[in-house]
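Minutes, structural biology subgroup

Action item carried over from last meeting: produce the structure token record for Alpha-1,4 glucan phosphorylase (Tulasnella calospora MUT 4182). EB confirmed the sequence was re-checked against the source entry. Recorded below for completeness.
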Amino acid sequence: MNKPIDPSTIGQPEPRKERRRHQRTATGYLPEKDEGGKEIWPRGDEAAWKSGLRGVDTDLGAITKSIVGHVQTTIARRAYNIDEEGMYRAISYSVRDDLIVNWNDTQMLYTKKSPKRAYYLSLEFLMGRTLDNALLNLGLKENYRKAATTLGFEDFEELVESERDAALGNGGLGRLAACYIDSGTTCELPLWGYGLRYHYGMFWQQISTDGSQVEAPDPWLNHANPWEVHRPDVTYLIRFYGHAERYGDKKAIWSGGQEVLAVAYDVPIPGSYTRNTNNLRLWDAKPKRGFDLNSFNAGDYEKAVESSNSAEALTRVLYPNDNHMVGKELRLKQQYFWVAASLADIIRRFKQLDEPWAKFPEYVAVQLNDTHPTIAVPELMRIFVDEEDIPWNEAWEITQKVFCYTNHTVLPEALEKWAVPLFQHLLPRHLQIIFDLNLYDRRSTRGCVHLLTTSNVHVENSYKVLAMANLAVIGSHKVNGVAELHSELVKTTILKDFVDFYPDKFGNVTNGITPRRWLDQCNPGLSALITETLGGEKSEWLKDLKKLQGLLAHAKDPVFQKKWADVKTQNKERLAHFIEQTLGVKLNTSALFDIQVKRIHEYKRQSMNILGVIHRYLTIKALSAEERKKIVPRVVLFGGKAAPGYYMAKLVIRLINNVAKVINADPDVQDILTVLFVPDYSVSLAELLIPASDISEHISTAGTEASGTSNMKFCLNGGLLLGTVDGANIEIAEEVGEENVFFFGHLTPNGTLPTLSELPLEVFSAWISSAVEDLRHNHQYRPVPLQERCPALAVVFDVIAQGRFGDGHIYEPFLNTIRTGDYYLVSDDFDSYVEAQRMVDEAYQDKAAWAEKSITTTARMGKFSSDRAIMNYADEYWSIEPLKLE
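Output recorded by EB:
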């Protein structure tokens, strides 16, 4: 089971990561000394180090010289006391040198050619580890491996794994942004990303002795980050609070309040098999005046540092808990701080062109990734009207041509809304602009009252709120969803009132993933097998994922199937080793690996998965010993974080851990069923889990998941999909073949569904939306007891309530959400889910047929490359073109 944590260790560095930083021993690489005190270098490393210092005329020699130089001058260490953490940093600085040369050349090319640039504004960039990705993109991994070996560090992968994940995101939104930045460079597009330099990230997730999630700080910047370049010369002053005095035609002077400095940190983003290197610019907050000497001299020490603490809190932690007013205010401040600094930087760059403001949209495109950066719309208007003296109507026309907005949800509660009093207190000038835009929007919609009452930027509730999604729509010239079904649902549900007036704004860009990170890097065995089978260079299929279709010719070949299965087994063994080392649990690597990893949320229905596990456990327990031998062994793995204030999601985590504790200790199901919650899910952990999966679960309530990208990652690595009619699941099924996907749910009787080719998309989405609402209506107004709705689930509930997995009373709030109301339709889909799992078991027993399904799934995933998605944005939304660095 998950090893329980000692409460006294909460907030301390993770033990596993600390072990990787141990110093080399005398029998390894610390030099011994002879009787006279002279150092004795082990394994002949002295010559390697000295040759590195001198340098030789070979690639390997140059790399060795660069590494040794950084050991001595950048991190100020000597050869005999360099440990793994120090060597990782030295290698990273050496690699960064190459990146910065390419970065400077790329920026010089952009300056000379003055192309139109796109800027991707995302509050999250979940980059994961950088060293391995950079080496693969530069094609230098083997050279650096050899150089490290000559310097006495033979386990290069251990060096790579000593890097901490960059904690700049918490889920799919940030991982998608990272894929797009990677693909933008690979496709040689002039594309920059803008985000925040969080010091602590989301949180380090630990599991307590009672199975609950415990949040501890994640100080990922405690050790110097070799991948960032501090830019103290790129600094902007950002204002909060104060007051705005109107004058003239819609103009105002905003003054007073608090001023905070935004300081830039750049992260070079390499492309694959290209010298082009783009940039991710992250903003850190610093006080305008860091220390109040007068207060200090007067003995008021708290006031002396108050300004510094207040400013630095802006970028201290990702997404502060907004269950209270202080958290809400800090979150809104984060958003404005990031957006204002980014726009100031973009405008500074445009002014260097010495072009009229009317041409601003010809040089600048800004993508709003979700509603978080929507404040950019009134901020750009403020700059145009108040600072650049552009007439209101002209400023608004320019603004709309600049922005595009990506919607990531159809859940009304997930669309950001800000209380007017809070907004007015923090950003008084922007509230004035939003009210003016509201009046302008009324005129542009010809005074249609019904539109104003339902989709107006200024919405009445128990108190006045600002609906940021609506503001993003009217402030952008393009709006897109992230899967075909989602994009249609957006138009028919949450944003339907805008479609009649802005029909040309709405489109779709189905999400994608980078095959460099999510196949080549995380699954090198499969990458090598694919390259060997397709022939040619690896770069050919990595940059044109459609070429994977060449694997279809080998899908029925028993020899190739055996090689394919062997790679999967190796990946399972790698994951099993990690699990045993970190959690102390041995996994049966011949079992079917069933994995669900994503943010914990009711609509994603990890709840149904663990309830299904309990049902499976009870079924196995009822069998005889002889009958159990026929059961397909299964390892069920969960991973994901629950928001700190999301009580129900945290309760699901607790249930998963306590169910696992019982099942894993039961000798009746040993090697037949193992259940684990893997704590602190991250990009690096995903790189272990995804290649090892046989089945991945994407089981959200139909019509609630926008797209998903983890479904694409699992399928690209040959894991089959178990899912609902939701998000990108449908498009994946269309590509890989419905016979290779296990669909279930009330809307998929007998595991089938109407394909989009048989049903128009708008009809298909309307059918799903109305069917889900009908079910919810029945639960609310014509309730049926759970025992009648779903007897199998009722038995599971009884077992939980009776205390089989700990105190049953603890889980009553969770159980009651399904007993009464069941908004996410768990009871409606449960029987179908159990049947789908039975079909999985049956299919897995035919190893040849399963291998064919797995190969076919990977071969047909070409559509889901983020290269395709980013070029879609470039062509249809941003109007930018590739610009190659020779």
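Discussion: The two ends are 54 Å apart (CA to CA).
Next step: EB to file the record with the rest of the batch.
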